[in-house]
Amino acid sequence: MNSTWQKLSGFNIEELAETRKQIHQAVQLTALTGRAFLPKVEDDHFASLLWLEDKNLLAGQEWGKNKIKTAINFKDFTILFLDAEDNIVGSFPLDCKTFGEAFDWLKEQVDLLGEDVEKLSLELPYEIPIYPTASGAPFQFANKELFNELSKYFANANLVLKYIKEKNEQASSIACWPHHFDIATLIVLNNSKENYKSIGVGLSPGDDNYNEPYFYITPWPYPNTDEVTLPELPSGGFWHTKGWVGAILTAKSILIFDSSEKQHNAVKDFLNNGIKAVKDVL
């Protein structure tokens, strides 16, 4: 079990981004079973994923009569089936395999469990970034250290989000959403329809906004930046104001700190003070 911060290392941002895109594609496989076999809810929660800190795995919701979880191990880039006790009962290494081959394996496993294979569908209620693996190119598990590094980011994010959840009783359960591939919690400050206010706190492993992992704190509704003064943020954090408003702490700013303790403290300082700052502008 990793209950302490894992020191992050500096890697080529472009190479890390390529690894992230492959995992983002593969993560869709872990969400398919929840989407197929669990009752539908408006927020797509049945397709959300959880970080299993004792296993270092990203796993979907339990589904089917055998209470199976479909999971992914970043470190060896493998799709897994876990039983109710989180023991591995099936595995499919993705290296040099296509998305279609992985989906075929998934269907075989579902069939062996006596579930209705016809419920599985590759149709998603959203679009994800285009990547060659979506068009038949095989996955490539070339640089294992990059996959391990992204595993560290998710483990560390889960660690600090648990800390934030303990400090904020309004915070939701921590979940990873396969659409944007971010892991987050939502702090609801006012749940009324007339004056709904919330703060999203999480980690994105990178996207079109920033091609590197970053922690974010986003208010809703977004404040009018022409009417409010956004306060300074600690630890190298800054405000994103193009298209949406949020406090941002990128991997580059975290990597300035040369020990796991300093990195951990920098992120906690950013999150604690960033949440206070966001509350002030809501």
Furnish the topology, listing elements before pairings.
Layout (H helix, E strand, L loop, with lengths): L12 H25 L11 E4 L4 E4 L8 E5 L4 E5 L5 E6 L5 H14 L31 H24 L7 E3 L4 E9 L6 E8 L9 E7 L17 E3 L5 E5 H4 L5 H22 L1
Antiparallel strand pairs: 1-2, 2-3, 3-4, 4-5, 6-7, 7-8, 8-9, 9-11, 10-11
Walk me through what this model shows.
By secondary structure, the protein is of the alpha+beta class. It has two domains: 13-135; 145-281. The protein contains five helices and eleven strands, in the order H-E-E-E-E-E-H-H-E-E-E-E-E-E-H-H. The protein has helices spanning 13-37, 99-112, 144-167, 251-254, 260-281, and strands at residues 49-52, 57-60, 69-73, 78-82, 88-93, 175-177, 182-190, 197-204, 214-220, 238-240, 246-250. The strands form two sheets. It has a six-stranded antiparallel β-sheet. The longest helix is centred in the N-terminal third of the chain and has 25 residues, at 13-37.
Brief summary:
The chain has helices at residues 13-37, 99-112, 144-167, 251-254, 260-281, and strands at 49-52, 57-60, 69-73, 78-82, 88-93, 175-177, 182-190, 197-204, 214-220, 238-240, 246-250. With 282 residues, the protein is α+β, with helices and mostly antiparallel strands.
